[in-house]
């Protein structure tokens, strides 16, 4: 069977969920071969094998951490040369897309980004995308070269399918261009202890209606009662009430959870672009005319300072 | 020596309009007004600031797009860019991102550059990969997705806020930079700027000028093919209740029905 390269997103060998989704999708196209760069390959290989990786190509080198993007492209290209895959799948993170794009040019292939589903087709993999702020669903394919496709988080449920997951060392040579952009320093983001925004099953977001950083604890309390991640609109982020890394929307994160709760958010097109594909949408807004109500499965017209604490209490009571 | 800055800007259908696909499954540019992609205003702004900090700099704005795309160039010129280059050719219709990056790279080389500044993503295609593609093709460092950027002594420095960490980056010129909407509000064109823009040069280039064959671009030359585009089914109207003191409870009831609680 054809092999399919899957680029592994991990933190020191702890494989992130979008990669498990990619392995699951890759199995529809062929035998997944995982590419693991940096430390922790042996640890990661256990998980990768469990989700179907027949092989793990591993390379660890200081260049991956010291220089931006290009050393990783060099490594993925080395894996491509070693395997001659039928397709290359990369998680749709900002960095993932850049790596994928540069690889595509090097190997003379087309690229599709932000796929939300993948299936095998007569002329290669068919990617489903959600475009124009999720107003259209498209089906596309790469028509030249080996398909390079990036896939958004939450595109499918990871399914275990044990395979060998044998680790093989990948040898990579870095060119002069690889060290062009130096990473002078790196400050890891502090974890909030809540689920990762893009991976969460439930997201509770606050907007301008929250009216101050000091009020966001109301949103956080609701999120914690539901086991949810916290999101924010750009208005709330620009006002400095919540970190930009929590922004949902066109220039923030795209989320596609089972449940999205929008509080004090009007529902501008750029916000909708980041949450419109959520399975169930509910909103709390004091303006009955707010466009967010066009999207909801359930909406409450009311003051969030009344409704949200009451909801939180009720959820806690029901959960016992 | 003068710092030559090229800013890549895209002319896009207005995101607040009703965007559609045309029959050939390319973007329908007829039904919705076009404008300078809002995220590219941030690129123009940062280029202007870099140029203000430099002893001597010249900003060229560059677009690949149809005739109307001149509007995007004019807007950038009225913000303060010095001159514009417009790549237009009927054979470009339907070009995908790999083709667009090839055309832009050729045009940038022809114009001459020390620094290329892009937006973080277009507001229509929204792929966010073009800057990386340009760096690959031009063979220069990519310093992308910056929320802060500065150029001093032939080096570009910037801050990249990633998923898991914030990174401080450094590269030597020439380089390709892209900036996010966190980099600082873009200025509004002044009346003087708008009047001045009318006199600034706009150079037109076609595929011949760039030594690009028609079959390397356009819909037929594209590396990807869109087979189908379907409007998302309208959501069936949900229940909206007014809070009369029970709104929180009612919402909890709904969430329980759907098994979220
Ligand atoms: C290029 C570009 C990119 C953008 N990217 C993004 C993005 O990624 N994400 C994003 O969110 N936006 C983005 N925006 C901004 C977007 O256009 C809107 O400005 C923004 O989403 C508005 O945020 P909001 O809904 O919180 O604020 P508003 O539109 O001001 O809405 C606030 C809402 O809160 C309600 N409210 C007020 N008080 C209360 C109360 N006590 N109880 C209940 N409800 C209350 C009001 O009725 C109102 O509907 C972008 C814009 C541009 C131009
Ligand atoms: C399903 C689908 C269908 C599409 N159909 C069409 C279509 O019919 N016609 C069409 O034109 N596009 C179409 N596109 C988009 C097209 O493939 C890309 O827009 C284009 O090639 C560049 O990618 P991008 O807009 O996503 O740029 P990004 O990678 O998001 O852009 C990043 C930055 O690159 C620069 N840039 C991007 N494009 C240009 C440009 N043209 N000139 C100057 N600078 C630029 C800007 O600085 C921009 O901020 C489609 C996209 C999808 C997903």
What does this 3D model show about the protein?
- Chain A has 320 residues and is α/β, with parallel strands linked by helices.
- Chain A has helices at 17-26, 41-50, 62-66, 70-83, 94-106, 216-226, 234-238, 269-272, 304-319, and strands spanning 3-7, 10-11, 14-15, 31-37, 55-59, 87-91, 111-119, 126-131, 136-142, 148-151, 166-169, 181-188, 202-206, 229-232, 259-263, 280-285, 298-301.
- Chain A has a 9-stranded mixed beta sheet with strand order 9-8-7-10-6-1-4-5-11, sandwiched between helices.
- The mean pLDDT of chain A is 96.
- Chain B contains 7 helices and 13 strands.
- Chain B has a 9-stranded mixed beta sheet, sandwiched between helices. In chain B, strands 2-3 form a two-stranded antiparallel sheet.
- In chain B, helix 2 packs across helix 5 and helix 3 (97-111) crosses helix 4 (130-138).
- The mean pLDDT of chain B is 95.
- The interface between A and B is large, with 90 and 80 residues.
- Bound molecules: flavin-adenine dinucleotide (2 copies).
- Chain B: Its cofactor is FAD.
Write out the strand line-up for the largest beta sheet of chain A, numbering strands in chain order. 9-8-7-10-6-1-4-5-11
**Hetero compounds:** flavin-adenine dinucleotide
Please state the overall shape of chain A, judged from the principal axes of the Cα atoms: elongated
Global outline of chain B: globular
Q: N- to C-terminal separation of chain B?
A: 66 Å
- The oligomeric state of the chains shown is heterodimer
SS summary, helix count of chain A: 9
Fraction of residues in H or I helices of chain B? 25-40%
* Mean pLDDT across every amino acid position of chain B: 95
Low-confidence stretches of chain A: none
Beta-strand segment tally of chain B: 13
Q: What portion of the residues of chain B fall into strands of 2 or more residues? A: 25-35%
What percent strand of chain A?
A: 25-35%
Structural class of chain A: alpha/beta
Spatial order of the strands forming the largest sheet of chain B: 9-8-7-10-6-1-4-5-11
Subunit structure (chain B): Heterodimer of an alpha and a beta subunit.
Pfam families (chain B): ETF (PF01012)
Family (chain B): Belongs to the ETF beta-subunit/FixA family.
Cofactor (chain B): FAD
């Amino acid at each position: 069977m054809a092999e399919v390269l899957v680029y592994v997103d991990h933190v020191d060998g702890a494989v992130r969920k979008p990669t498990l989704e990619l392995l699951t999708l890759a199995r529809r196209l062929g035998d997944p071969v995982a590419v693991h760069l940096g430390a922790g390959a042996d640890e990661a290989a256990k998980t990768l094998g469990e989700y179907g990786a027949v092989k793990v190509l591993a390379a660890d080198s200081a260049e991956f951490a010291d220089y931006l993007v290009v050393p990783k492209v060099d490594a993925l290209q080395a894996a491509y040369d070693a395997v001659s895959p039928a397709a290359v799948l990369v998680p749709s993170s900002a960095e993932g897309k850049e790596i994928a794009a540069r690889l595509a040019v090097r190997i003379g292939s087309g690229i599709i980004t932000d796929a939300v589903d993948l299936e095998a087709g007569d002329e290669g993999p068919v990617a489903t995308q959600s475009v124009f702020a999720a107003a259209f669903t498209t089906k596309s394919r790469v028509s030249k070269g080996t398909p390079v496709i990036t896939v958004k988080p939450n595109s499918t449920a990871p399914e275990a399918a044990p395979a060998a997951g044998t680790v093989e060392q990948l040898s990579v040579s870095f060119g002069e261009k690889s060290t062009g952009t130096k990473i002078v320093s790196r400050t890891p983001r502090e974890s909030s202890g809540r689920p990762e925004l893009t991976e969460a099953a439930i997201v509770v977001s606050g907007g301008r209606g929250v009216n101050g950083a000091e009020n966001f604890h109301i949103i956080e309390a609701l999120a914690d009662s539901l086991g949810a991640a916290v999101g924010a609109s750009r208005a709330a982020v620009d006002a400095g009430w919540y970190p930009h890394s929590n922004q949902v929307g066109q220039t923030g994160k795209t989320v596609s959870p089972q449940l999205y709760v929008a509080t004090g958010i009007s529902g501008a097109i750029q916000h909708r672009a980041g949450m419109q594909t959520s399975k169930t949408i509910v909103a709390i807004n004091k303006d009955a005319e707010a466009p967010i109500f066009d999207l909801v499965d359930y909406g409450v017209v009311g003051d969030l300072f009344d409704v949200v604490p009451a909801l939180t209490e009720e959820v806690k009571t029901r959960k016992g | 020596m003068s710092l030559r800055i090229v800013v890549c800007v895209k002319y896009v259908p207005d995101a607040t309009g009703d965007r559609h696909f045309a029959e050939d499954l390319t973007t329908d540019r007829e039904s919705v007004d076009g404008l300078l992609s809002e995220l590219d205003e941030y690129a123009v702004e940062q280029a202007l600031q870099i140029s203000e900090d430099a002893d001597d700099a010249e900003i060229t704005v560059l677009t690949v797009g149809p005739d109307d795309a001149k509007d995007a160039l004019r807007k950038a010129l009225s913000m303060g860019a010095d001159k514009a280059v417009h790549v237009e050719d009927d054979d470009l219709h339907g070009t995908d991102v790999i083709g667009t990056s090839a055309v832009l790279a050729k045009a940038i080389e022809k114009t001459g550059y020390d620094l290329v500044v892009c937006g973080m993503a277009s507001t229509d295609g929204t792929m966010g990969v073009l800057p990386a593609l340009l760096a690959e093709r031009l063979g220069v460092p990519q310093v992308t997705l910056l929320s802060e950027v500065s150029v001093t002594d032939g080096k570009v420095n910037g801050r990249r806020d990633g998923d898991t960490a914030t990174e401080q980056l450094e590269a030597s010129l020439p380089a390709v930079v892209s900036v996010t909407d966190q980099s600082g509000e873009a200025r509004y064109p002044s009346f003087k700027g708008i009047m001045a823009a009318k006199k600034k040069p706009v150079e037109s280039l076609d595929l011949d000028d760039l030594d690009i064959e028609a079959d390397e671009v356009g819909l037929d030359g594209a590396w990807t093919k869109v087979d189908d585009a379907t409007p998302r089914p309208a959501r069936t109207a949900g229940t909206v209740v007014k809070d009369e003191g029970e709104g929180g409870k009612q919402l909890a009831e709904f969430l329980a029905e759907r098994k979220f609680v």
